[in-house]
Amino acid sequence: MATTQPDRIISLDLIRGLAVLGIFSVNIIGMSFMQGVYFVPTLQGFDGLGDHIMYLVNFVLVDGKLRSLFSMLFGASMLLVVDRAVAAGRSGAKVHYARIFWLLVIGLLHYYVFWWGDILSHYALIGGIAYFWWRRSAKVLLIWAAAFLTFNLGFSMFMGYQNYQQMQAELAKAQTEAIEAGKPAPTLEEMIAKEDGGPPREVFDEAKAIHANLITHTEEQVSNHLAQPFMVSVFLLPETLGLMLLGMGLYRAGFLTGERDERTYRKWALWGWGGSALFTIAVAAWIAAGNYSPMHTGVGRSLLTLPTRPIMAIGYAALMILWIRGGMNWLSTRLAAAGRMAFTNYLGATLVMTPIMFGFGLGQFGELTRGTAWLYFVPVLWLAMLVGSKWWLDRYRYGPLEWVWRSLARWEIQPMRKAAPALAAPAAAQ
What does the pLDDT look like over 403-413, one tens digit per residue? Predict the structure, then answer.
């Protein structure tokens, strides 16, 4: 059964736990290096075989897929909260927008003060739009999801082609000017680095200076990137809204709650996850054969694998549900706990990594390679999430930041510690 507690849907917690752990597997790169490395691995920290392997593993199993899953779970959870509020006689809109408002505040604080890769403010902005579909049936939600995701694919192809044409024109011009001046002709990698503000070394030095402390980071974000979270949300609206509606539709259809038959989940696990993984492996091989050039990584990440991400995400959900059909075990129990504390675990990763990477702490920003950054930190934080979440929830009702969010949204301090178990009544005299 997917539900083993009256107020929890275990399948949702389990899938969310997988998503939040997976997201940190790629976020560690954005925290450890200058921003461009997240998209163009050859710019920095890509020296050895281990770095290549880590890039390819993340590309095949994680990048885009588990963020899609997280977005779907956000939509499903939003629908669950609104449905329960309405069933309890409260206003679904008031409950939802109170939560969304504080999520936006916390997300913007995360973005401006700590890290450029925040996704919470984006979810808050798009979640505010997704609410207008909450009354719709599973069929209608899935149709709208398909429409938005199809539009996003077409839009991405158009923008990708436009960017490629522009970059090729700029590259040809720069190479001609360099040859006429008797200088080495720039490469495409150098052109992309220039778009970020200069040659890789200069961009890195500037990024490291910005991350010297939280004050300089906040000043940079507020002065030069104040509108960035809102601009990103406009650009990513079709994809994220489509994924949220997909999650809402799959929740309404009983798929994410484990209510469908075994055959349905097996088909999605085999063809959805397995088929998408095989295709992504082929794209990864093409990227590696192209020496991880910006053209290969950009096309592979932003175009070729774009339509398979939601399919593979559904496949991941199917695998998780099949896993617990026979009951929970040590790992699945802790993964579900990590999912219940996804808000804390997501932000907690930033709060742990910021002092390690930035100048006010250990100053490891840009000092490691892609592979070593992953190996040094990801397994440790995964273990902390799995063990720590279970330990915490055995004693408290909510994760620490879930409690803060819930208290702010309800404008009332919520009970935190679990009630002590009642003593068993004495046996009646024989």
Answer: 999 999 999 99
